[in-house]
Amino acid sequence: MNPPSENLPAPATLAVLVSGASGVLGQAIVRELAGAGHRVFAGVHRRPWEPVPGAVPVDLDVADDTSCRAAVRRVLDDTGRIDAVVHVAGVILDALLAHIGPDDWDRLFSVNLGGAMRLARAASRPMARTGGHIVHIGSHSGTVGSAGQSAYAASKAALHGFTLSLARELGSRDVRVNTVLPGFLLSPLTAGLTPERLQAYRDANLLGRHNDPAEVARFVAFLLSTRNVSGQLFALDSRVIP
């Protein structure tokens, strides 16, 4: 059976739901997509959000199934379709395993992996009728591991596996699924790192510098414009993946 949208042109204006839109990377992606003229729905929850012209804020708690379904429904009610979901929302936990409690572990997996599952489950059904694209924000740690990040790395490694499996499940319906590894970004989440740790991240980058949220956002926007790319992991920060 041919994919339902095989002979349909890609819409020039996409209806996109972005989770974690109040974070540095999420806001950069919202700004890039809205600036390109797409209909962007910025998923925010609790954290302050700086308004972006052309973007519509939507309450979205990715740890809650009802909230995910309601956010997808909002996009469908406003535009009649949902062309893309970009799952940016995530929790970072830097601690040795001996210092991680079960509740911390469960919370991290509920957001990083469970959030991707809930959004994909809510969006994939309407996407299956017209085609669509799901993009997950992964992590270099999920591919190589990182001391002191066992929970975080495990959740991102699971997200990578989820991406690859979901791409196989949805490919026949012209729903593409990909993961982007944005690399190390300067943000409030990394503001507490020592100068030595920041330098170590720069040294691991072949170009000797940190990545830029705006560049990651431009790549995500480009990826959403493609029609024939699925089941891939894209590393953007020039750290070598073995």
**Strand element count:** 7
CATH class assignment: Alpha Beta
The value of Rg in angstroms is 17 Å
Based on secondary structure, the structural category is alpha/beta
Q: Write out the CATH superfamily name.
A: NAD(P)-binding Rossmann-like Domain
Share of helix, binned: 40-55%
How are helices and strands ordered from N to C?
EHEEHEHHEHHEHHE
CATH architecture: 3-Layer(aba) Sandwich
Total helical elements: 8
Largest sheet: 7 strands, parallel
Oligomer: single chain
Low-confidence stretches: none
What does this entry look like structurally?
This protein is an alpha/beta fold and 242 residues long. The chain has a single domain, classed as NAD(P)-binding Rossmann-like Domain (Rossmann fold, 3-Layer(aba) Sandwich). 43% of the residues lie in helices and 14% in strands. The protein contains eight helices and seven strands; from the N terminus they run βαββαβααβααβααβ. The protein has helices at 24-35, 65-79, 102-112, 114-130, 141-144, 150-170, 195-204, 213-225, and strands spanning 15-18, 39-44, 55-59, 84-87, 132-137, 175-181, 233-235. Strands 3-2-1-4-5-6-7 form a seven-stranded parallel sheet, sandwiched between helices. α1 links the parallel β1 and β2. α1 packs across α8, α2 (65-79) packs parallel to α4 (114-130) and α3 packs parallel to α6 (150-170). The longest helix is centred in the middle third of the chain and has 21 residues, at 150-170.
